[in-house]
From TrEMBL:
Pfam families: HIT
Active site: 148
Entries under SUPFAM superfamilies matching the protein: HIT-like (SSF54197)
Name of the protein described by the UniProt record: HIT domain-containing protein
PANTHER family to which the protein is assigned, alphabetical: HISTIDINE TRIAD HIT PROTEIN
Motif (Histidine triad motif): 146-150
A GO term, aspect molecular function: adenylylsulfatase activity
PROSITE patterns recorded: HIT_1, HIT_2
Database matches in Gene3D superfamilies: HIT-like
Domain HIT: 52-163
Length: 163
């Protein structure tokens, strides 16, 4: 019996580590570019011009604000992807248009925004859990170049989160 099992195992292709170049390309479940991906590709200019979030902060555009202090603001996402979906943004960009632009001088505002995300999540009844997401750059599907934290919850979320 043992000899037969060894013959079956030895007949299998040897398991060798292959270089990344020798591996076939990964197949992704999502092939077509989504509307959000197209928007992100179109918005990839990071030019420092006022964004929709700057206009919300300035009260030029209405938003359902659920939290605000001197450093940040939280408001409901108009394109909600979960029963509870809000954004947390710093009120002053100071070069922080995307997470990859963060420097040491941004540590306090980044920490405060994460604290605010947790604080508002509790206020919104997300005690069972939630997800935080920061999209960065065109391939990260960032469509507004003003750093923002998505907080999603109110239902069982799946993994992986998407394409």
């Amino acid at each position: 019996m043992r000899a037969a099992a060894l013959r079956r195992i030895s007949s299998l292709a040897p398991l060798r580590a292959k270089s990344p170049a020798a591996l076939p390309p990964r197949r992704h479940a999502c092939r077509a570019m989504s509307d959000e991906q197209a928007k992100a590709q179109a918005a990839a200019n990071d030019d420092g011009e006022p964004t929709i979030f700057d206009k919300i902060i300035a009260k030029e555009i209405p938003a359902e604000v659920i939290y605000e202090d001197e450093t940040c603001m939280a408001f409901r996402d108009i394109n909600a992807q979960a029963p509870t979906h809000f954004l947390v943004i710093p009120k002053v960009r100071d070069g922080l248009t995307r997470l990859s632009n963060a420097t040491e001088k941004h540590k306090a505002v980044l920490g405060h925004c994460m604290w605010a995300a947790a604080h508002v999540a509790k206020e919104q009844g997300l005690a069972k859990g939630y997800r935080t997401v920061i999209n960065d750059g065109p391939e990260g599907c960032q469509s507004v170049y003003h750093l923002h934290i998505h907080v999603l919850g109110g239902k069982q979320l799946s993994w992986p989160p998407g394409c």
